[in-house]
Amino acid sequence: MDSRGKGLEPTPPATRPTLPQDTPDPELVARLRSGDPGAFQLLVRPVLPSLLRLARRLTGDPHWADDLVQETLVRAVRSIASFRGDASLRTWLFRIQLRLAAQPQRWRRTDPATALLDPPDVPAHPPEDDPRARELAERLDEAMERLTPRQRTALHLRAVEGLDYRAIGALLDTTAGAARMLVLAARRQVMQRMGRHLLP
Amino acid sequence: MTGQFLDDSPAHCPHLGEVVAAFLDGAPRDTAPTEHLRGCRDCQRDLGRARRLDALLASQAGPGPDEAQAERWMTQALRAGAPAPLPEVPLARPGNRARFAAAVALALCTGIGLGTWLEQPGGGPTAPASNETAAVPRAASEHPTSGRSPALVLPNRTRPRTPDTRDGTPRRSRTEPAPEPSRDRVVAELVRSRRGSDQDLLHSQLATAAEGPEAEALRRTVRECEPAVRRLMHALQQRPPSHLALVAAARVGHPKLDEALLRLTRRQPELIDTVAAAMRPLDHRPGRTVLLLELCGHCEPDTLADYFRRLGGEATAELVKIARRTKHATLRRRCLHALAWRCDASAIPFLLEWIDCPSLDEALAAAHALSHLPAIHADKLAKALPRARRRSLLLAALCGVHFERAARHLRQAELTDEELDFLRGGAFSPPQLEIAARLCRRRSTFAD
Fold first, then answer.
1. If you measure CA to CA, which chain B residue comes closest to A41?
2. Interchain pair B74, A184: CB under 8 A
3. Could you say which DSSP state residue A118 is in?
4. Sign of torsion, CA A196 B2 B7 B8?
């Protein structure tokens, strides 16, 4: 039988996003802590895509995501002295971003750009996209939005950013085991809500 | 773990979650999941779906910022965040130079202080005490706290009131147990009395007297009196607890009693109505809103709707405060449902804000709460429409509040008469509101 044994290989690490400098150079970290703008550019810039992806998932709106990333960076610059360099800079920035996300009044400066449920004015996906892909994306958005904030964050950090459970647990102030359960529950719920749309 | 082969695999494999998780987390440590997966069609299908989901999430996350945007962020962050070079974190232990400087400064201060004291008339260790200064120790020795150093005791005229006394009666401090003031002598007698009929008397006093300052004073005294609280706890542990004890415990408003009531109602949900009804006539009962919200978890959602409706005006602010502060999504959703039952316009800004929150369930609950507002508030919702992220939800809520005000946004919607009748009907339940939002979703225009 052809189907037997298919898909047995574990998820290869290559499919995970590459992690930009998870253990930064100590010399660069020292320059960063002393307020060197060059070091800040060098270390933080590669993390910006990750920050923007998480911000989009946390806010659900591209304009608000921009606001959140901007405020995260400002807070990071202000408290850069507290970054010891023994943890990943990306995780440290994620922590700042997650804390800020819970206080939208501190960073929301613009009106929302699009309504995820309301595509008529500003469509979330380009009109030339495949309608099936668009529906799939909308369903995924809706399923993700129905998760609790912790579940949503945990699943994003695992599936998109490829963080291990220990890092996710540290970011969500819980244990690695609890983080794993969060990811499993979130994945299960989203899969249930997506139903047949996830079938190949 | 036993392998399930393709021909006889059950519809729902019991190992589904674990096997899929093991593969998604990387290489499984043992061979059992691999063996199982080789023969289990359910797990194979689920693993494929989970991988597709992860791939979809990664692809949907979107591209990173473009160069210009990234540059703008970095520049603004550096400009706003760090006007000056950041200092190094100070070392945990001061260096020798710092220690020497501190010692010199201390010696100088001591020398100057000593010199000033010796130059004063009557100063110095052997100088005779003047009349005024001699009176200080005498006054101090008369003071009940004469164990202190006399030099620290000021004359009565200037001495600030101590927490101990002024008129001879000891004052309460936070650590001391609550005394029994004379005005509450009746309560004190009730509390001191032994179990039996007197105990029932205490409970009946609490249960029958709901309103008025005397009843409030009685509840406050019992709340601060640990023996009385213990006695009520004991009464609640009886199987079954008496109606009097239940009502009395619900009215006192002590955290321990509230916990006991929650435990009790979890086992016996039929008592929820009694507890909620007992709290209803009280104007000031600590923790009432929180207890009602917790009780919602033990009964049907609408059971307590009427009790939330009849809470005082300050309950709306309390519900908003709880919803903002809590980390528990369930409690937050209960707050939103309670706000829907209350139909209080003071919650509109909070609900409009919450309709844009990342959680769709909470946004639906907020829209449901808005849809129950009186029609007079339709303008506030209509004004918020252009700025809302989830406009369809807000429009559906507006349909519930005032359909004619919402109709202009549905002009080009081409809705059928049946659909329009549904939207016009209003009074949506949460599932109906979701349907209404879907109707408003694709077929509306928001151009005014």
1. B74
2. no
3. B
4. negative
Note whether ipTM > 0.85 here: no
**pLDDT tens for each residue of B353-375:** 888 888 888 888 999 999 988 88
What confidence tens digit (pLDDT) does each residue in A148-177 have? 888 999 999 998 888 889 999 999 989 999
Q: CA nearest B59: which of A159, A48, A175?
A: A159
Average pLDDT, chain B: 73
DSSP reduced 3-state for B180: coil
- Give the pLDDT of residue B118: 62
Residue among A1, A81, A146 whose CB faces B361 most closely: A146
List phi, psi (to 5°) of A113.
-90, -50
- CATH number of the domain at A131-198, out of 1.10.10.10, 3.90.550.10, 3.20.20.70, 3.30.1490.190? 1.10.10.10
Is residue B131's pLDDT more than 50? no
Indicate the helix (H) or strand (E) that contains B355.
none
Q: What is the torsional sign of CA A12, A16, A20, A26?
A: negative
Q: Would an 8 Å CB–CB cutoff place A67 in contact with chain B?
A: no
Q: Do B329 and A149 touch (CB under 8 A)?
A: yes
Residues in B touching A2 (Cβ below 8 Å): none
Would the CB atoms of B87 and A81 count as touching at under 8 Å?
A: yes
Would you call B84 an interface residue with chain A, using a CB distance cutoff of 8 Å?
yes
* Selected residue of A148, A165, A182 to mutate for chain B interface (largest B Cβ count, 10 A): A148
Taking the Cβ of residue A133 and every Cβ of chain B, the question of whether any pair is shorter than 8 Å is answered with no
pLDDT 10s digits, B68-120: 888 888 888 887 765 544 444 444 455 567 677 777 888 887 777 777 666 66
Q: Where are the alpha helices (DSSP H) in A80-148?
A: 89-101, 131-145
Under CATH, which number does the domain A19-106 receive? 1.10.1740.10
- Report domain extents, chain A: 19-106, 131-198
pLDDT band at B9 (very low <50, low <70, confident <90, very high): very low
- Cβ contact, residue pair B76, A73, below 8 Å: yes
